[in-house]
Write a structure and sequence with these properties.
Elements: H1 6-14, E1 20-22, E2 25-26, H2 37-48, H3 56-59, E3 60-62, E4 69-71, H4 80-97, H5 104-124, H6 128-142, E5 146-149, E6 172-177, E7 180-191, E8 198-201, E9 216-221, E10 227-231, H7 238-241, H8 245-248, E11 259-270, E12 274-277, H9 283-319, H10 326-351, E13 354-355, E14 361-362, H11 365-390, H12 393-396, H13 400-404, H14 409-415, H15 424-438, H16 440-448, H17 453-462, H18 466-477
Parallel strand pairs: 1-10, 5-8
Antiparallel strand pairs: 1-2, 3-4, 6-7, 7-11, 8-9, 9-12, 10-11, 13-14
Helix pairs in contact: 1-2, 4-9, 4-10, 5-6, 5-9, 9-10, 9-11, 9-15, 10-11, 11-15, 11-16, 11-17
The structure holds iron/sulfur cluster and fe (iii) ion.
Residues 100-102, 104-105, 191, 257, 297-298, 301, 449 line the site of iron/sulfur cluster (SF4).
């Protein structure tokens, strides 16, 4: 594989020329712009892990396509061990960055696409898998970062793709040529988009016959001239403009993934990069599998973040003299308990993985949905406990400018100090980190990333096998089981 460390990944981004806007202005270099650079560094950690002897086994594997060494973020899971190693890798990366490192969306897109196009080919005699394998070999050999692009704008949510007054509310094919297709539309909330090499477009929902032009999977280089990206705002991002390192909270890696709108204005995609074209019957399976893979991740990456947050709160308790209080220990215990509960579900849905007909392994979808649903609750509870333990000064803390001021810096140092011997600056740094990790954008990501809570509840109900459960109850009572109805 070509890109073997974080520095090479960052350098590779400088050779791309994507069109990116932020706050009304163009970003020329995502690796240096204060709004995007932290996210680039977080993604670079996925590359750096491959040269970390302790974790190399998680970060690197063997391609089932070529037998060559590849990064796990480009791998098609071949067994349960692969699923488990992915989960372990994500937790480690969460611990090392304290944020979203973005690269899992492409990995999950690759895996969902691989298993589904195999089934399309089996049923319809198409050659999508061969095309996908060629593209994937390129991705694996170069070790590229792929953004999995699923979520469409959706316009009027009461209508499906084919009934929208504006057809561009869902990415769709506007022209079919002998040598490829032309697509138009947009994808929203795209984690890691501005620092990816490639975009893997997938349909966002199950579709019917009338939506053939919307049933499209294809791959496009991220700097295609027909693509415009608009990078999103995040809570307190103005603090980054002046690179106030303490006030940013986590200056190295950012508080969330770094999301963008990707707009496609009549982008041509050659045939060899098209992996679904009109097969609406398979859109449901694609979305279902992608969602399950991504929801499985959340009990791992977020657990890594919560490990950092728990460590930050525990240290803050030590340096402000509250660590021995029994209620503090109890709340920290609860934070750990909730984190580990989340991790259990990520491990469980991987341990219960199963092979699709393509040979690619899927996680258990029920357990993956339960995992993500729990993240939407436990992360909030952990954040609540962290803020409870940290104290109100996080909301009223003066800025780094005041700390550094010749006139009043000594006052900030005096009145925001904790136990003797620990610089006030250390206490402020930890406080800002807790603020960043429990703030608005970070929690919204846990709520809606990988699908909003209701999306998991729909799948949990659907997968709940209520008929079987009714049979169990009836059997125990000796009632006739044939009366069962779903
Ligand atoms: Fe990966 Fe987690 Fe970020 Fe999703 S939220 S891309 S699973 S790190
Ligand atoms: Fe996410």
């Amino acid at each position: 594989m070509k890109l073997i460390n974080g520095a090479e990944y960052i350098e590779s981004l400088r050779n791309l020329n994507p069109t990116i806007y932020y706050k009304g202005e163009k970003i020329d270099d995502v690796t240096r712009h204060p709004a995007t650079a932290p996210h680039v560094r977080a993604a670079a950690m996925t590359y750096a892990l491959a040269s970390d002897e302790e974790h190399k086994d998680l970060a690197v594997t063997t391609s089932h396509l070529t037998g060559r060494t590849i990064g796990r973020f480009t791998h098609v899971h071949q067994n349960i061990e692969d699923l488990m190693k992915k989960i372990k890798m994500l937790r480690v990366l969460g611990q090392k960055t304290g944020t979203c490192f973005q690269r899992c969306v492409g990995l999950d897109g690759i895996n969902a696409t691989y298993s589904v196009v195999f089934e399309i080919d089996e049923k319809l005699g198409t050659d999508y898998l061969e095309r996908l394998k060629k593209w994937l070999t390129y991705i694996q050999d170069e070790n590229l970062m792929v953004v999995g692009a699923m979520t469409d704008p959706k316009g009027d949510r009461s209508k499906g793709p084919a009934d929208q007054p504006d057809p561009d509310q869902y990415v769709h094919i506007v022209e079919r040529r002998d040598d490829g297709i032309v697509i138009r539309g947009a994808k929203l909330h795209m984690t890691g988009a501005v620092n990816s090499h490639e975009i893997l477009i997938m349909p966002t929902t199950a579709m019917d016959e009338r939506s053939k032009d919307y049933a499209v999977i294809c791959a496009i280089p991220a700097d295609d001239p027909g693509i415009t990206m608009i990078f999103g705002r995040q809570a307190s991002d103005d603090r980054r403009d002046k690179m106030e390192r303490i006030d940013v909270g986590k200056p190295s890696f950012g508080a969330v993934g770094g999301e963008a709108v990707i707009v496609f204005e009549d982008v041509f995609v050659p045939t060899e990069r098209v992996f679904m074209d009109g097969e609406t019957d398979f859109t449901g399976a694609l979305v279902y599998r992608f969602a399950a893979h991504h929801r499985a991740n959340y009990g791992a990456c977020k657990t890594g973040l919560m490990d950092v947050l728990t460590g930050a709160v525990s240290y803050l308790a030590q340096i402000q003299g509250t660590a021995r209080a029994s209620h503090v220990k109890d709340k920290i215990t609860e934070m750990i308990h909730l984190s580990e509960t989340l991790y259990c579900s990520s491990i469980a849905c991987s341990a219960e993985g199963w092979p699709t007909p393509s040979g690619a392994y899927m996680v258990d979808t029920m357990l993956a949905n339960v995992c993500k649903q729990n993240v939407t609750r436990f992360h909030f509870e952990i954040a609540r406990l962290a803020l409870d333990l940290a104290g109100g000064f996080i909301a009223t803390l003066p800025s780094e400018y005041d700390l550094e001021s010749e006139e009043i810096g000594h006052l900030v140092r005096k009145y925001f100090s904790g136990v003797e011997g620990i610089p006030t600056e250390t206490r402020i740094k930890i406080a800002r980190m807790i603020e960043a990790m429990t703030g608005g954008t970070a929690l919204v990501e846990s709520m809606h990333g990988a699908g909003s809570p209701q999306a998991q509840r729909v799948m949990i109900f659907r997968e709940g096998e209520l008929d079987k459960k009714i049979k169990l109850a009836k059997s125990l009572l000796g009632l006739p089981v044939r009366e069962n109805k779903k």
